[in-house]
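thread: overnight batch results

M.L. [08:02]
morning all. the overnight job finished for the chain we discussed friday. pasting input first so we're all looking at the same thing
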Amino acid sequence: MAITREEVLHVAKLARLELSGDEVERLTLELGAILEAVGKVAELDLDDVPPTSHPLELVNAWREDEPYDSLGLDAVFANAPQREDDLFRVPPTT
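M.L. [08:03]
and the structure it wrote out:
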């Protein structure tokens, strides 16, 4: 399955990525190769394969629900690039 330059640009816009012309060309080739590899699954005869949501049996490992102290504000904001009072300051989105 081929992917077009316009589709790569559309996905980049949705992801809010600024790509150079070289990056668009490279990603068009790379994403095309990935889609081609994934598309080979459609060629397999999977009629006898039951649907699965996970390859392994999942079991919940519950821990005791015990109350504990929350992090202090200084610890919460320790790695925040910007803080405004008790809020994270983030750049506006367009």
